Structure formats: C-alpha cells, structure tokens
From TrEMBL:
Cytidylate kinase domain ranges (all copies): 6-223
Gene3D superfamilies: P-loop containing nucleotide triphosphate hydrolases
Known EC number: 2.7.4.25
Biological process annotations from GO: nucleobase-containing small molecule interconversion; pyrimidine nucleotide metabolic process
Protein name, UniProt field: Cytidylate kinase
The species this protein was found in: Polaribacter glomeratus
Amino acid sequence: KKKITIAIDGFSSTGKSTIAKLLAKKYNYIYVDTGAMYRAVTYFGMKSKLVNKDGFKSESLILKLKDIKLTFKFNKILGFAEMFLNNINVEKEIRTLQVSQQVSKVAAIPEVRRKLVAEQQLMGVNGGIVMDGRDIGTVVFPDADLKLFMTASADKRATRRYKELIDNGDNVNFEEVLFNVQERDRIDSTREDSPLMKAEDAIEFDNSDMGIDEQFERICTLVDSKL
Ligand code: C5P
C-alpha cells in the first residue's frame, strides 16, 4: 500500500493532535507534532533568558539556534513520541501556559521557521507521516496527499486547553487560557512569514459540535480514498 503524507493545520486546541495520533496509530505512520518543536525552542529561549514577558532578544536567540538539537523519541508506554531538547526530555516543560504565552512571538522569527521547516521536511521524505501544525499544508508539505484544516469555537478550544493544563497540574484560570488561545491565533494568522491559513486544497473540519469518533471516521474515509 502507498505511504501517504497527511498535513493537519488549524487554530490552537482544535484537536489536531488527537486526530493525528489516532491516524498514526491506525495506519502505522509517524506522527510529528511540530508545535512541540516551536515550544522547545521557546523554552530554550526562556531558560537562557533571551525570551521573557517584556520582549525578547531575537538576535541572540538566532545566534543560539545552532546549539539547539531537537529530537523526538517514541515512548512505547505513552504510544507517542516525546520532545527532547539537547537530549533532555522537555515534554512537560513545553506544555505550560508560560511557554504558550511566548511561543507565537518566537514562531514568527523567520530564522527559527527556516531551521524547523527544514528538519520537518527531512522527517517526511519517505511518506507515511502525519504532521500537525500551522503551515504544514502551505509551506512544509505543499504537495501533501491529504490536507485537513481544523477549526472550533474559541470557547470550546479554551475549555479543552484549560482541562489539559489543569490535568497537568498547571494552576491557571479559564480567562487567561481563553485569552492565550485567541492571542496566539491572532499572532499566528497575521505574522509575515508563513501565517496560519487554510491551504486552497485543504478540507475544513469544524469540530465545535462534532464528536471525535465521528470526525475520525470521516477522516479515515478520506485517507482510504488516497491509498
Ligand atoms: O500546536 P501548538 O499549539 O503546540 O503550537 C504552539 C505554537 O507554535 C503555535 O501557537 C504557533 O505559534 C507555533 N507553530 C507554528 N507553526 C507550526 C506549529 C506551531 O508557528 N507548524
């Protein structure tokens, strides 16, 4: 059977990674969470005091990019790959609200994008991959066999993200999570370099009111039609 490339883009917390993980499992594909890569670079910047609430030193961060080694290692127990920054597992650290509050600024830096996009394209050379992010169908894999674009109401998305953060032991309130979700979408959609947008040939899914099972079933039918 043909090993295809599946690109999933969309606004934050629209359930992209849930669908991507299910697809990877069913078709035995590699799943790549590109948001984790932008988050890891952001976390590196925060730790090195190059990124903070008041602004950031993009010049210094750009110079440090060559010292950032990102790797995914598959965790058999969890059933997905975890993000390693310079050989250290940062899976927990990169999911905090603090990182979410800085990541869109870092992801707007063209040099950061160039590095990560090149790495993502290398991971996809053999197909058999499902990748989620903001620019996968438009920039990383413009020739992907299947492109999905996920949306949902801001309220649904913030509720989902809030639950995840609370489950992770992050002490946040709903209002700041809602603000962050909307603020990230605003920055991601309006940045100059590869802004978040639906590729012309992407199929849109609004999952505000659709259950994950129904959605997954529909998407599998689409995948099967490409094999
Ligand atoms: O997917 P996730 O919400 O973890 O992504 C975090 C942030 O990383 C996004 O809000 C966006 O700023 C950035 N990102 C990006 N391009 C991608 C994936 C993520 O700019 N392909």
